[in-house]
Amino acid sequence: MGILSDDVVIISQSEKEGEPSVITINCPDKTGLGCDLCRILLFFGLNIVRGDVTTDGKWCYLVFWVIGKPNTRWNLLKMRLVEASPSFSWAFGISRYYLSDSESQPPKFPDLFLLKLACSDRTGLLYDVTEVLYKLEINIEKVKISTTPDGKVMDLFFVTDTRELLGTGKRREEVYEYLRDAIGDSMISYDIELVGSEITARSQASSSVAETLFSSDVLGEQPSGGLHTSSNVSISVDNSLSPAHTLIHITCQDHKGLLYDIMRTFKDFNIQISYGRFTIKRGRNCEIDLFIVQSDGRKILDSSKLNALVYRLRAELQQPLRVVMMNRGPDTELLVTNPVELSGKGRPQVFHDIALALKKINTCIFSVYIC
User: Fold this and answer.
1) Alpha-helical regions (H) of 1-119
2) For residues 319 and 218, what is the distance between their CA atoms, to the nearest angstrom?
3) 217-240 confidence digits (pLDDT tens)
4) Residues contacting 302, CB < 8 A, separation 6+
5) Which end of the chain has the lower number of beta carbons within 10 A, N or C?
6) How far apart are CA 335 and CA 221, in angstroms?
7) Are 157 and 133 in contact (CB under 8 A)?
8) 334 contacts: CB under 8 Å, gap ≥ 6
9) Residue 194: which of 108, 111, 117 has the closest Cα?
10) Coiled-coil stretches, from where to where (predicted)?
């Protein structure tokens, strides 16, 4: 018997602007579920100000207090959260959660499309395009943008569609209409075509610069340039408080996507959270208590595993993004790198936020490469 989606996710919107809305999720548990849910909240631009997580290893109960925006699409958010929960499969009689590794099917990767857009250049153009794609739930995987001396721009966006409809004429027409409204008469040409999997393979092999930046010791060697860092990170481990769990206590400064960064680290280490609490104190100081176990349900006693986990958490919290600025003659090159999940999913909305920041300081972008 399936679980009704209305029972899986309940959203209580705040009555006053600036006050948190409450999102309650009640569904079967799986390793990495917290990461998947926090990634969706981050994609929708929500700021998590408090969180509680409880699970017995089979069923979980999560509550997030979030600050939204006036234009937050709450109904769409609920749909995406329901889809991310294991119970979404149950609702259609597909108990994928209980399939063994030998019975489960390999994940199906979404189709990759090439969006080609030519238009006249102007300040803020790139942000306007990324804002449209964000609203339409089209994910940017790779970008190549060039500006000609006469002020013309050729944008090449390799994208995937969350709704998996970009192969239809109706969906492509919708994208065109939204882009036309945002860009206006400066649009010269527009086209979308399906590309082969070899493009994805090549793009995955071209990220050596990012790997070099993130392989350097966050506490030691650092690349030249400005880095987004925070030294106010304290992580302690306690194996004596609970007979069945390892306690991780974290205090740090809040930043966008903080809870996602923590949950992503645990997911990559295949660690389950049995109970967790996240709160923001005065001055954007955060306190996080997490009772965790390994995938076999036991507490972590291996000191090498604990040291590796603490080191990775500290790295993620001190430098969630690495930003380097370099002078290239008359131009300035901005290099931004961020880690991705082992599943290959990157941090959502990074390119969108960069374009917005550059638009706010009235800075023109004439060339972009994202891999």
Assistant:
1) 5-8, 33-43, 74-84, 87-90
2) 8
3) 444 444 444 444 456 899 999 999
4) none
5) N
6) 17
7) yes
8) 323, 324, 325, 354
9) 111
10) none
